[in-house]
Design brief:
The complex is a heterodimer.
Chain A: E1 3-5, E2 10-12, E3 15-17, E4 19-24, H1 32-44, E5 49-53, H2 56-59, H3 74-83, E6 87-91, H4 107-111, E7 120-121, E8 124-125, H5 129-147, E9 152-156, H6 169-180, E10 187-191, E11 204-209, H7 227-230, H8 232-239, E12 246-251, H9 263-270, H10 273-284, E13 289-293, E14 298-299, E15 312-313, H11 327-341, E16 347-350, E17 359-366, E18 371-378, E19 392-393, E20 399-400, E21 406-415, E22 420-424, E23 428-433, E24 437-443, E25 449-452, E26 457-459, E27 467-472, E28 475-482, H12 484-488, E29 490-492, E30 496-499, E31 503-504, E32 510-512, E33 516-522, E34 526-532, E35 543-546, E36 548-553, E37 568-570, H13 578-581, E38 587-595, E39 600-606, E40 608-613, E41 616-622, E42 626-627, E43 630-631, E44 636-639, E45 649-657, E46 674-681, E47 688-692, H14 695-698, E48 709-717, E49 724-733, E50 739-744, E51 747-753, E52 761-763, E53 772-780, H15 789-797, E54 800-812
Parallel strand pairs in A: 4-5, 4-13, 5-6, 6-9, 9-10, 10-11, 11-12, 12-13, 24-28
Antiparallel strand pairs in A: 1-2, 2-3, 7-8, 14-15, 16-17, 17-18, 18-21, 19-20, 21-22, 22-25, 23-24, 25-26, 27-28, 29-30, 30-33, 31-32, 32-54, 33-34, 35-54, 36-48, 37-47, 38-45, 38-47, 39-44, 39-46, 40-41, 40-45, 42-43, 48-53, 49-52, 49-54, 50-51, 50-53
Helix pairs in contact in A: 1-3, 10-11
Chain B: H1 6-9, E1 19-21, E2 24-30, E3 36-38, E4 40-46, E5 49-52, E6 56-60, E7 63-65, E8 76-78, E9 83-89, E10 98-107, E11 111-120
Antiparallel strand pairs in B: 1-2, 2-9, 3-8, 4-5, 4-10, 6-7, 6-9, 10-11
Classes of the chains: A alpha+beta, B mainly beta.
Amino acid sequence: MEVTFDKYSLMIDGKRVFIKSGAFHYFRTPGVKMARDRFLKMKAGGYNTVDIYFNWNYHSAQRGEYDFSGIKDVRKVLEEAKKAGLYVIARPGPFINAEVNAGGLPFWLLKMEDVIPRNRIGTEYKYSPKYMECVAEWYDHIIPIIKEFDNVILFQIENEYATDSMEEDYMRELYKMVRERGITCPIFHNDAYFAGLWADCVDIYALDLYPYINPNQNWKQDNFCFDTLDNVEDIFRCAKDNAPPFIAEMQSGWFDKWDGSGYSHIREALGDEHINIMTKTALSQGVTLFNHYMAAGGTNWGDLACDEVYTSYEFTAPIDEFGVLQSNFYKAKEINYFLDSFDLTCTEPKDFDFQQENIYSKMRHDNINDCDWLFIRNMGINKKINEAEGGVTLPNGKTVVLKSCDMKICPVNLKLKACDIEFSDVEIFARLQNEKEEAVFFIADKNANIYMSDGTVIKGDKTDFENYTFERDGKSTQFIFLTKHLADRSWFLGDKMIFNADYVLPNGAVAVEKNTEIAYFDLKYKFAKRNCIVDAFSKTPSIEQLEISDVKFCAPEIDLDYDYSDWKKIPAGGKTDAFSCDIYDEFIWYKAKIPNNLTEITLSARHLFAVYVNGKEIINRNSYKLEKLQEVPETISVPLNKKILYREENELTILVQNLGFDKGFSGDTNNPRGLVIFETTPKVPVEFYVCDRLAPEYSTRFESDNPYLSKITVNFDINMKDNVFFAKYISFEDFRCRRATIYLNGVKIGRYIKRRHVQDKFYLINEFLKPHNTIDIVVWEKDRNVKSAWGFKSDLKNVKILLGTFKICQLFK
Amino acid sequence: MVVVPDFLIKRIYQKGSLKKFDDGASFNLKNVLGPGFISGFNYVKINDVVYDAQNVKFIMNGQEYTSADVSEDHPIAFRLGQVGTLVVKGEQSVTEGVNKIVIEALNPEAGVVKLSVEDNV
């Protein structure tokens, strides 16, 4: 596959292609089946490209060791993308951010003393030969895999990179390294500052645009948030005039964080208006390559997350964390289908003398379809430009009625096979065509009209499938109307349309969740119908309570006289943070002997921790605090007394939960984790022994005497069938504990931590589900009101653990 | 630490806008980076004189914003292309010739944004 470009678009094997991409994280959506599901849904939604970050840290636990097996097999992910008919934008970093642990940089790299990650300290450039050696090692492993796939059309180096002095050595060296390893497609970098950065070091200049990054702001009210996007064509032309405008990350959602406003708030705030405005405005600016970041949400299972984010990385993406299509998917689908129907890869800005408060308008001439497209947007908050007010009267005398925060693409002088449209503010959904015939599908809109060149006006207030046929010179054009509701359930497969399905696969298989009459339309046979009777799954309740099979205390490490002689020894005075101990797991245990003359210990631990002396808890604390995007370290002192230190030599146990390393965008990936400070009063040397993980993660024989960590176990069965898509979750009721870690069949799938908000539903990642399943919930920190160990156990036995279903659909071939 | 390169941040300061007053100074900031918000000013330093947040006010579109008016919950919109005047009160700090100016502002998304420039009167 030969990929070239000019100032308008990318060309694949000499043919212009509009790149409609969406981001997907294989590490957050693990396994081939899940990747296949998301890719096929993307393809069904009109995306033709998937953007893939390759996460160095996910594959490399030790220098020189790379794991691309099992669910880490990226070759299989790329194969699935190819099978789904998607091009690939490959983004192997080395740094990826993506709110992953350490921004995707491996821990062994960060630990190396003579390495300066990303050749910069803060914003100061500092070239590090050792770092470049390590990058070469990563490229030597990942690029040969990427290179096997000829559907890889673009390759990114670094990620949102900048330094004060902007020396080009690093970027130029990365470019050279990629080329030397055989990548032939265009190379780009994504400039987060839309300032033309690195334009001369790459083939195609690209930028990232996120107008809504503060969920506390109302983007509809602060409508100037699109100022940059509204002028982005100028930025592209100034940066690199001979390459097509490429938005490498175009906002289609946003991530939530600890103490954030919650995904339901973000989804509601963005609505489907935001993706509509983002995408259509980009088209109005001549963009012919965009990448919705993200197309599919994911889950921070295992230790994937950076400290900032919780388990769900739903991202309010068009395809949510669970694989369910959301309203912004349907809006993206409308635009993607329109772009499949009318090739907008070669357009020029055209003068359009029109200005009105809160109205953005832009006209483009289409060199391929020989027509114009008017892009028009109403940003008047709560102000519909309605018919009574006369709508927006354009210089051509036509009136457009727009809802608040709505944007339309209106054809101007569009020549069809058997008729010509002078102007239409009824939007085009899709077009099927052959040499002699075409069917143009419109989305019905009671306030809009199609003005034909012969003076006829067709009102947009139509019902489903109402149609008009035009004949001219032996050719025919049919207009078919769909209501928005039906358009959402309509699927464009190039040569046919399928109606009423929840979703379809590129091979024409349809998915429905209840008995449905599916309609088909193609130019040869016109309409046909088929009944899909759902029989693959019985009427399962949408939610059911699971019976608790077992509750056990599970932290023998805290017990007095626990044998930790085989743990790693940290000499007295040695550093005890995660890097120094070489332990990067979420949980780190520390054990030591302390004398009975201590009056106080002072410690700083990242992020949550508990201190136990002689098997009894003396403090349990959530130390995680983020202010103005910066971590706020906390150091606290804990008083001790003879009652606590009742033995001559006392046993100290500290358990620290590391929520993840900094993602490295505005903070430092090397911010320490684990036990960062430990001092005693009076000062005495303390020799620590350290170990990672909680006992249930590595052993089945772990029951202990102390009640501080407990494990609740439930079992359930799933009827797994190939022709059924399902997404399941667990949630809790009457759960009085503030912290828990959830394991599905031994895989850590969630962190439950009660703060201002708490994630209350945890996705049971399909990849880890089996016909017979076990969920273990390790509870850390018992409710203070529960005094006795017996009472605590009894309390946990009364927790309601609910198994829910988000969505279940049967597939019909 | 905010990873916005220095040379980009510096573009916000309008060269030649520094004015000297008996009890302070003023200068202009123009947003050439992208639409955004200001959620506060930590301090402004001109040469060796530090003006803390209480002695800093920002005037934009004829409206004055003091530290009491601006916070993370009540940020000021700073549109692309918009110009505002930062006024500092307290003591005189501006000298003839080159003046070193440091502004530490807060942005809800980027956190602390520090700008160091030089300007003449």
